[in-house]
Write a structure and sequence with these properties.
The chain crosses the membrane at residues 59-80, 126-150, 156-181, 235-258, 278-296. This protein is an alpha/beta fold. The protein is built from 20 helices and 10 strands. It folds into 2 domains: 2-311, ABC transporter transmembrane region fold, CATH 1.20.1560; 331-573, P-loop containing nucleotide triphosphate hydrolases (Rossmann fold, 3-Layer(aba) Sandwich), CATH 3.40.50.300. The protein has a 6-stranded mixed β-sheet, with helices on both faces. The protein binds adenosine-5'-triphosphate.
Amino acid sequence: MHLLWDCLKPYKLSVAALLLFLVIQSACEILLPTLVADLINQGIQTANAHFIKTTGMRMLLAAIAALLCSLASGLISARISTRISADLRQQIFFKVQEFSSSEMNLFGVSSLITRTTNDITRIQTFLLYLLKMGILTPLMMLSGIIMAVFTSGRLSLVLIVTLPVMSLVIAWILVSMIGYYRSMQAQFDSLNLVLRENLTGIRVIRAFQQTCHEMARFEGVNEEYTRLSTHTQRLVGGLMPAVTILMNITTVAVMFFGGRLVMNAAMDVGSLVAYVQYITQILLSVMMTSMLFMMYPRLITSLTRIVTVLETSPGIVDGSRTEAGIHTGIVEFKQVYFTFPQAEEAVLKNVTFTAYPNQMTAIIGGTGSGKSTIAGLLLRFYDVTAGQILIDGVDVRDYTLHHLRESIGYVPQKAVLFSNTIAGNLRFGKKNASREELLKAAGIAQAAEFIEAKEAGLDTPIAQGGANMSGGQKQRLAIARAVIKKPAVYLLDDSFSALDYKTDLAVRQALKAETKDATLIVIAQRISTIIHADRIVVLNEGQVADVGHHGELMERCGIYQEIVRSQFQQEGLR
Ligand SMILES: Nc1ncnc2c1ncn2[C@@H]1O[C@H](COP(=O)(O)OP(=O)(O)OP(=O)(O)O)[C@@H](O)[C@H]1O
């Protein structure tokens, strides 16, 4: 709950104004039964028309004042709750930007989306209710009890029985609901996950005729969510009738005992009518408060989910060398070991190699041998478990993440584009790049031709996830995005796989000229892509099997020979 108080702090003034309006509203509303009592006792029973008129006017003014205060407090509470939910959404979004791949894997994308949307909306709804009813109902209850006791101490004995019974019933139902709400939230994440996977992988699902299987999978999680919802709704459904029946019993008891007091002339009729209104106000306040408590278990679940994200410390922290940039770009892996969080076996073992500027260093190896992991470690998506990665003699952990990543032109294995124009996507590499610079980078990546063929050229919109581009076009745009940075180190992770041989060659030749002074690290599956590399690191099950150029490796590295043999006729390549 301290998160909510922290969030409320910046809105102190608004909360103070809200409090003022709610105090006035409750005072006006509690005044009305007193005026009714006066109207009956001194106006109707004595047939005093003037008194009836003036009291009626006072009642009207009190009702209008209560209404205006209610409107004002409604507006203020809506403003505060929407602002706070926007603040929370922003905090979560900013926090997730700091997360390393470990934290991303820990929470999962679906859960982070649900937390940023669903959970925060729930907090907003609770806050809206809390700021209005959470303040108003205790005020109404307290003033109602004072007025009831003041009007008739004897009749108020009824409340001594009713209020504790009502509170116990409400507490029992609410405690039963907490466990269900927690399970419901977790199940909602699963529902979201299945839905996301289905929507993003719909083509594969259809191509592999898995629609029925996926429908059954969705039905399973949906059914479980429905089962949990039904249980909670049953409890919610039981709460209101329980409270209503207790309210009705109390009113009947008050009328019964109050009627006898009136008959014995121990109480006047006006006071009994006012008393019934006070009792109704008290019990309505209890009911409203119970609604707040009903929302509370869900709020606690959502708050816990938000706080867990906000309190998670990012595993990757900035280095201290704020002044240092990377200029030369010598990349050294020194006895690097790496084990993924929660994994038992190391993915990389004793990996040692150096990549120099003005040279192309290639990394090749079987699938799953750890090539992309090497790229992830260099960019500090993860940190090494043991050993060191140095750039220009400095441990990558000592650079600020900004300096480090600014100096590396990364092309990921799966080209990711954003819903923007082609120019907007390329400017990810350099924010203020001119159109000439964009076209030059596109030219190097062999993308200029297809960009210019499009009617809007660089301003062609890219659909969500790059859906309106082919695999090869996406890869070329991703290469252009890295080229435009002019980084000290180029890191290309299997970035030519979707290109035909001719384009692959053209991109490599253009890149060679462009990256003359830079360190070029190319991860590849195809021998033809890396055959002319200055140095080839052969990776086998997370270990460096050998390092050398193609000729050397063909003579002494069995694993390399095996890879070559599987792709080409050995003789033809020598
Ligand atoms: N987030 C992760 N958590 C646990 N293990 C992982 C994770 N990512 C990858 N791995 C494992 O690490 C190993 C190396 O993966 P990596 O992606 O580096 O291989 P790769 O050589 O790039 O493979 P490919 O050529 O198929 O892309 C694999 O066995 C993979 O299962």
